[in-house]
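Service request form, structural biology core

Requester: graduate student, group of Dr. S.
Request type: structure prediction, single chain
Budget code: on file
Notes: please return the result as structure tokens.

Sequence provided:
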Amino acid sequence: MIVALLDRFPRLVRRDQSSLAIAFAAPVVALCVATAVNLALYLIIGKNPLAVFYAMLVEPFLSWASFSEVVLKTSPLLLIAQGLAIGFRAKVINIGAEGQFIMGAIFASSIPVWFNEAEGGWIWPAMLLLGALGGTFWAAITAFWRVRLNASEILVSLMLSLVAEQILNYLLLGPWKDPHGFNFPQSVMFQADAMIPILFADTRVNFSLVIAVVFSMLVWLFMQRSFQGYKLQVGGLAPAAASYAGFSAGRAIWISLLIGGFAAGFAGAAEVAGPIGQLQRSISTGYGYAAIIVAYLGGLHPLGILVSSLLMAVLYIGGDNAMVSADLPIAAVRVFQGSLLLSYLIAAAFVRYRLEWHHASKRTPS
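Core staff response, request fulfilled:
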């Protein structure tokens, strides 16, 4: 009886070959579904869904000033997501990009904090490099525990993010606290030479955008044209085949985590040396977690991530607009981001699988 009832429900059956059209349609469908669901939620909580939709998805494009802020937020999301996607494709799940982002900001800030009177065009490039090394170092801890002790990189990287936040709090409430900062937990303001050059006049968009785009191109070349990138993809898609071919699983873990940490640390350095201009507790903005959504929404492909990072940046700026003009709570913005990831994961499942209906066969009379 139970088997007969179960046979009436559809089952997911793996497709012999994934459709390229469905793969491209998946993020579009996910965006439409997430938008529809959240507009219904806004109606339930008593908000005007049309006003929210306008503020969140239309207003960011209405002026160069607002769109430049979208471009500004695209840079860190793009950098971090591209780094994470390399590991995700190799089935190395780095959830600790937020901590690596924070450590990158801390390492980069050490130069203007300790040498606040220094001058020269070397300062901001040195900050970016030091920040990238800081993120790489923090990711290396996860890699060591994963390879040497077989600890879950998901749990270790996530817990290290909490440790990074406490290190940030200690520094800003202790040795790095600005003595003239009216008791606010923040460092001294950075000197002019510690700031990344502005890319467009009258905006906050800086040279880190160019670096993020170049990094995306390098990631594409690495994953699509290099033998090491090929080994990472094979290790993620077919671990048994990779092991049989002699590909090192440990090396794949180290490379994936170090690249992800490098990108996140670089983004953290660019944040303090760019739009903020000092180290603050609010540097932990959730970019590391949002970049996970960006990576998957972009299909873990460098070009797709370029588009999805722009979309997520729109949601950041549009969410701020909606909180002001439509009185939307900040939790609703985060629900939108989370539901977008959930919708994509469901849609992505139908790229690889299809529904198949099974009906109980009639018994032939004996």
